[in-house]
Amino acid sequence: MIDLLKGESSILREISFEEHKKIELDILINFAEFCEKHSLNYFLAYGTLIGAVRHKRFIPWDDDIDVQMPRPDYEKFVKIYNSEKDCRYYHFIDPADEDAVHTMGKIVDKRTVKKEPGVKYHKSDSHGVDIDIFPIDGQPEDEKEYRRFYLKKEFMFKMYSFAVEDFSKRTIPQKLRGVLFYIIASQNGKNHYLEKAIKINEKYSFYQSKYVGSIIAKCNTIRDRVRVECYESYQLSEFEGYEFRIPVGYDEVLTKLYGEYMKLPPAEERITHHSNKVYWK
């Protein structure tokens, strides 16, 4: 499949920006219906949450969908989605799966193919247009302890990323800076670091913690920390003509992450931050 993409791009039709968003929206609809059917909690998250609150649709220059689930609901979802889902061409990829290359879960449309710079897929045909699913974990209450918690998890997920990275795509200076981490991570394997991160999580129950957040990926920040009350219930919000769940404390969540989130960024920053290419198989 990769050879076809490199050699004759006309064999596979590239998916346009608007098509890409439509496919993701369809995945989100299927995901939300599945969660409702199985009484699983979920919430729109990050840029998708801003899109729902500020635009009632995608942020106009954005092209991805993020959702969050409390850890207990996420673990139930992981166990049942691929065996009980109602759509034959959607597939959930867990970070522990052989073909996973990201630290967050993903639902992928198997009719599509994705090319990501710097990412080496174990199975080239298993990744395509997707939505990201972030579990929400409990966190320590003490601020100093939280900082140590964050740095430990950040390190584990950076090493996971080194273990799956296509190191040949790095520049020479980047290789020199990261070669030792790459060698160590490659020897240990990604799941070594994933298991260590899970052990850190197990100390803090979502429902028994005062603070919660998603610290599982390079895109998460130390600001991803809010009161658990923000996620104790939900309200419905319009997104692309449909209604989806958002956390009842969405204002606190978004303010903590982005500051004045209702204010549009400068024109020069209104661009997508992804360089992926996606194709129909």
Largest sheet: 7 strands, mixed
Order of helices and strands: HHEHEHEEEEHHHEEEEHE
What spatial form do the alpha-carbon principal axes imply? globular
- Share of helix among residues? 25-40%
The overall average pLDDT, rounded, is: 90
Instruction: Report the sheet-strand fraction.
Output: 15-25%
- Counted up, domains total 1
Helix count, per DSSP? 8
| Whole-angstrom Rg | 19 Å
Tell me the distance between the termini.
9 Å
* Structure classification: alpha+beta
Give start-end ranges of low-pLDDT stretches.
Answer: 1-9
The total strand number stands at 11
Kindly describe this structure:
The chain is an alpha+beta fold and 281 residues long. The chain has one domain. Helices cover 40% and strands 18% of the residues. Strands 1, 2, 3, 4, 6, 7 and 8 form a seven-stranded mixed β-sheet that branches. A hairpin with a 2-residue loop joins strand 9 and strand 10. The longest helix has 22 residues. The N terminus is likely disordered.
Topology readout:
Layout (H helix, E strand, L loop, with lengths): L1 H6 L9 H21 L5 E2 L1 H10 L10 E5 H14 L5 E4 L11 E5 L2 E4 L14 E10 L3 H22 L7 H17 L1 H12 L9 E3 L12 E2 L6 E6 L2 E6 L2 H9 L18 E4 L1
Parallel strand pairs: 2-6
Antiparallel strand pairs: 1-2, 3-4, 4-6, 5-11, 6-7, 7-8, 9-10
Which terms summarize this structure?
281 residues, two-stranded antiparallel ribbon, 8 helices
Quick structural gist:
It contains eight helices and eleven strands.
